[in-house]
Each structure stands twice: as structure tokens, then as C-alpha cells.
Amino acid sequence: MRVDVPQLLAELPSVGIEGATRLGLSIAPQMNTDAWRHLVTRVAGLARTATGARQTLTAWLGDALAYGGVRGRGLITECAEAAGFDPGTLRNAKMVCSRIPVSRRHDALTWTHHCEVALVFSEQTQIELWLSIAEVEGLSTSALRRRIRASAAYEYRRQSPEAAAETSVAIFRLMRELRAANRSLARTLDVWGKWSPTAAELALQDLQYLAEFIDVMRLKATESAPRHAQHGK
């Protein structure tokens, strides 16, 4: 379905918006906090009511949240509820928009193509390379995902034994710390399970990267589910 960008844009406050495409929202520099929060609220509300424009409005929300930077702490949960989205979707959208400015997005690709690339790569050269590959070769998002995984596996095999060992040790150390934190949470469930909404919001602010880690791991596990199902046949 073709997205009517001008119609969507007409539903938003004109102050502070420099332009929009189906892949992103360009926001004027130095927008004050009140105007910015109003814009975020309006985009979130529009995302709940508009039909056939979910990807576009996800990208717009991502741009608005990325623009706010640290001012957006605690706002993602609020926006997700207003838009009818999962908070993880908006955290990912914010990351994608932070890594790929509107001017660097490829019109021939979809928002999900950009997500596939930006959730894996942070360096601009790698991001541009993979977006260009997807556009030139006409890859679907699933085909792009397979290509990226195959490339990552190849690069991992090319590592020297020493580099591979260092990577394994780093993973082991991180998982050891995460398991310890998980055991601590299990022991104190009766405490944090009763936290107020305000306390929960503050926790999400302080544990931003932990929340993003869980979202990314859940996404990766979901993507690999069909493959595991095939092995189980």
C-alpha cells in the first residue's frame, strides 16, 4: 500500500518539521523541549489511528526519539503505549534512526531493510555497503538477513585462533555477569515485582542498554526459530 506522506504530515504540527518521506522525518535543529515532546506525542497518536502506514510512522517516531537524545529517557514506554507498539520496537527504531540519518536512507528500500542493517552495524561504511547491496541486488529483507549472517559467519571463521579465543572469552565473561544478575533478580522478585510505575520508569532509564540487549536477543532468537523448528522435524 502506498503511503500518503503529505496527508500524514498534515496531521502533525508544522513547527520544527523540515520535511518527511515514507522512510523518515527531518526535524529542524534546536527545537525546544516542549515543541519536541508535543511532536513525539502527536506522531505516537497518529501511529495508533492511521492505517497502512505503520512502517513510516515507526520510522518517524524513531527519528523524533533519536532527535531528543537523552531527553527521551522514559518516553519510549509512554510512546509505545500511545502508539500501540511494543517498547522494544521503538527502542530499535531509535537506534536505527541514530545510525542512519534521513539523508542516508535509500528510497528504493523499505524501513525493514534499514532495520536489518542498522541493528547489526554501527559503522557508516558498513551500513552504506549493505544498503547498497540490498538495493542493487534487489534483496528482500529475509534475503538480506541471510546474506549478513553468512558474511558474519565467514568473517568469524577468518579470525585467527587467538582472536576467536578472545571473542569467546568476552562472551563468556558477559554471560557470567548476566547470569549473576539474573540470579539476583530471581531472589528479589518479591521486591521489584511490586515496584510502582514511577520506579519502573526510572529503572528503564538506568538500565537502557540492558533493555536493548534483551530486545536484540529476543529478536535474534525469534529470527532463528524457523531454522530450529526444521532441525526438530
The number of distinct β-strands equals: 2
Mean pLDDT: 84
**How many H/I helical runs?**
12
**How would you sum up the major sheet?**
2 strands, antiparallel
Main sheet: strand order: 1-2
Which residue ranges are poorly predicted, with pLDDT under 50 across at least 5 consecutive positions? Answer: 225-233
Helix content: over 70%
Shape assignment: flat
- Series of secondary-structure elements, N-terminal to C-terminal: HEEHHHHHHHHHHH
Derived from helix and strand composition plus strand pairing, the structural class reads mainly alpha
Task: State the end-to-end CA separation.
Answer: 36 Å
Radius of gyration: 20 Å
Classify the beta-strand content into a percent band. under 5%
Overview of this structure, please?
- A two-stranded antiparallel ribbon has the order 1-2.
- The longest helix has 27 residues, at 161-187.
- The protein is mainly α and 233 residues long.
- It contains twelve helices and two strands; from the N terminus they run H-E-E-H-H-H-H-H-H-H-H-H-H-H.
- Residues 225-233 have low confidence and may be disordered.
- It has a domain at 113-158.
- Helix 3 (54-68) crosses helix 5, helix 4 packs across helix 5 and helix 6 runs parallel beside helix 8 (141-158).
Keywords:
233 residues; mainly alpha; two-stranded antiparallel ribbon; 71% helix; 4% strand
What is the compact description of this entry?
The chain has about 230 residues and is mainly alpha-helical. It has helices at about 5-10, 35-50, 55-70, 75-85, 85-100, 110-120, 125-135, 140-160, 160-185, 190, 195-205, 210-230, and strands at about 15-20, 25. It has a two-stranded antiparallel ribbon with strand order 1-2.
